[in-house]
Design brief:
By secondary structure, this protein is of the alpha/beta class. Helix content is about 35%, strand content about 20%. α10 (about 325-330) links the parallel β13 and β14 (about 335-345). The structure holds adenosine-5'-diphosphate and alpha-D-glucopyranose (GLC). The site of adenosine-5'-diphosphate has 17 residues, from α1, β13, β14 and α12.
Length: about 500
């Protein structure tokens, strides 16, 4: 089976969040199950800079399509490349006018969305859909697996081909975060070249705007998201971001599959970024990583301090606005905080101020840094993830693997992966961390106090660490679930006859 995996980030080449980790972990796991996977990404400078063995494939088709309209997008072509250390072939969508800009793939230097994001990501959708129609005559996907709103137009274009009686691949769309929807002015619709009648409440229209997320949810054959609990949450008004009605309508096509952990990258026994390595049978070295973390974050080198770590985008989603409000008590109880993050300038400032107010007890690094991220995950005692909502969350999974007890809010993937240290869970040996409900300083403090209480019982603490470290959230399991979906989709489809487009 051939699967085209359409996304915008790929670790370690280009990453803003967990999406990049998923693109690095899931496709190789699918390959080990026998799936012939290729990726498609925009040719962002970070990817071109590292691409090897580039081979031109084709220009994207222009002119009228079988349904009578023509996308009016800048000229673009697809190139097949390999990337160092990444075993799967990657198609890069080259359109210098759209992608050859330094910095963040979605935001300009002013921190605002690039003004032409509708065109930039419509082109990605168009490239994905036309690869599904034979753009590369040597490789045609049976299934196109699209990720987040950036790839959201793939299912729409594929549906347009299908309605024009072309044979098409099946489509599956994975929601990594429903809060980012790809909303644009209605005027942007005309250039997409989709059937005019689709700018409608039953199509891509969303309260007068154009929504790439809605397009995908409407037209994909199957929809997944990255945890079972989030799959349920997004069908509710509270968390559906205005799309809950459509998601309820499509409930039979919707499911939640937990993300995995890439054992090559996140494994305390082999992690080359750590000063000292350890595993569940030999935890002593974790103390050395804790000492190194304290040094890196200019914290007092107290072995008995309970160190709370944070590695996060600083956005409202992550609930970290609660943290400054509990620092006084946390520090007074003898705790420390090591925070690595970047994002919202007001939150960044709040943490910089906190580091000044609590010198030696609160250490803050503003920025994105892979080495420091590993230092926090390994060296902290507790990993804080108090999210308002969390589709899956990877940092709590990494923390579990490293014997760092996650302290999380009971939402989304956090609820699915962390078991609270209640007395009964401790008693039956299922506890792996601390879970709270109320998105408030008191809610967070209730869990922080329980962390201090458990820390005073070293044997029980060690048992909870070992339980977490023994769990495996592996990509193979996730890949098996995705493969089952691909197979169910393929059995519904007839073989594909290519609609062959132009040459390079
Ligand atoms: P999200 O995708 O919503 O940001 P996840 O928990 O799924 O949340 O994934 C976050 C990923 O980004 C993890 O791999 C985490 O280690 C990494 N990360 C987040 N912030 C930083 C940072 N400031 N520096 C380095 N890595 C970071
Ligand atoms: C999104 C979500 C996060 C998830 C990640 C990878 O960024 O915010 O919860 O883990 O995607 O699926």
């Amino acid at each position: 089976m051939k699967v085209l995996y359409v996304c915008t980030e790929l670790f370690p080449f280009l990453k803003t969040g967990g999406l990049a980790d998923v693109s690095a972990g899931l496709p190789p796991a699918l390959r080990t199950l026998g799936v012939d996977v290729r990726l498609l990404l925009p040719a962002f400078p970070a990817l071109i800079a590292q691409a090897l063995a580039m081979q031109a494939v084709a220009r994207l088709p222009e002119g009228k399509m079988p349904w009578g309209a023509a996308p009016a997008l800048p000229p673009a072509s697809v190139t097949l490349v390999t990337l160092p250390g990444f075993d799967l072939p990657v198609y890069l969508l080259q359109a210098p006018a759209l992608y050859e800009r330094q910095g963040n793939p979605y935001l300009g230097p002013d921190g605002k969305d690039w003004h032409d994001n509708a065109r930039r990501f419509a082109a990605l959708g168009w490239a994905g859909a036309t690869l599904g129609q034979g753009l590369d005559p040597h490789w045609m996907p049976d299934v196109i697996h699209c990720h987040d709103w950036h790839a959201g137009l793939v299912p729409a274009y594929v549906r347009a081909f299908a309605q024009a009686r072309q044979a098409t691949p099946a489509t599956i769309f994975t929601i990594h975060n429903l809060a980012y929807q790809g909303l644009f002015a209605a005027a942007e619709f005309a250039q997409l070249g989709l059937p005019a009648s689709w700018f409608d409440v039953d199509g891509l229209e969303f309260f007068g705007q154009l929504s790439f997320m809605k397009a995908a949810i409407r037209y994909a054959d199957r929809i997944t998201t990255v945890s079972p609990t989030y799959a349920g949450e997004i069908t509710t008004e509270a968390q559906g971001c205005g799309l809950d009605g459509l998601l309820r309508e499509r409930a039979n096509a919707l499911s939640g599959i937990l993300n995995g952990v890439d054992d090559q990258i996140w494994n305390p026994g082999t992690d080359p970024l750590l000063p000292a390595r350890y595993d569940e049978t030999q935890l002593q070295n974790k103390a050395l990583d804790k000492r190194a973390l304290q040094t890196l974050f200019t914290l007092e080198p107290r072995a008995n301090a309970l160190v709370f770590g944070v590695v996060s985008r600083l956005t409202a989603q992550k609930g970290l606005h609660l943290l400054p409000q509990v620092l006084a008590e946390l520090v007074q109880r003898g705790g420390q905080v090591a925070l690595l993050g970047q994002g919202d300038p007001a939150l960044e400032q709040a943490f910089v101020d906190a580091a000044i107010r609590y010198p030696g007890q609160v250490g803050v690094r503003i920025g994105y840094d892979e080495v420091s991220a590993h230092a926090v995950v390994a060296g902290a005692d507790v990993m804080l993830v108090p999210s308002e909502f969390e589709p899956c969350g990877l940092t709590q999974l990494y923390a579990l693997r490293y014997g760092t007890l996650p302290l999380v809010r009971r939402v989304g993937g956090l609820a699915d992966t962390v078991v609270d240290c209640s007395l009964e869970n401790l008693d039956e040996g299922s506890a792996t961390g601390f879970v709270f409900d109320q998105l408030s300083p008191d809610g967070l403090l209730s869990a922080v106090r329980r962390a201090f209480a458990l820390f005073r019982r070293p044997d029980e603490w060690a048992a909870v660490q070992q339980r977490g470290m023994s769990l495996r959230f592996d990509w193979r399991t996730a890949a098996q679930h995705y493969l089952a979906i691909y197979q169910s989709l393929q059995s519904d489809k007839s073989p594909i006859n290519p609609l062959v487009f132009g040459s390079p």
